[in-house]
What does this fold into?
Amino acid sequence: MSRLVDVDKVTDKEISQYLGVKYASCTEDIRSLIDDQPTAFDVEKVIEELEDLREVELRRPDMCGELGDGDGEAQYNDGVSQGRYEAFIEAIKIVKRGGRDEE
It folds into this structure.
């Protein structure tokens, strides 16, 4: 299982305290090691994929009709598709803010 850690919040002082006085000179090396680690996922790639899915949902044939057109099943499908579209918009917002509560 992977973890996402905001490495920018790990201070050099915290690293030094963790290592102790004997290894305090290694702080820069450890900072470089942490900074060189890949992220668990590519945020821009996730956003791009969600935007693509949102656009596919927008172009679905069952979303093209006006509400009230067709039978009950078509109206239901329109609602489901609209819900998916709006869910993609919300997912994009969540990923852009890093999953944190709105600031």
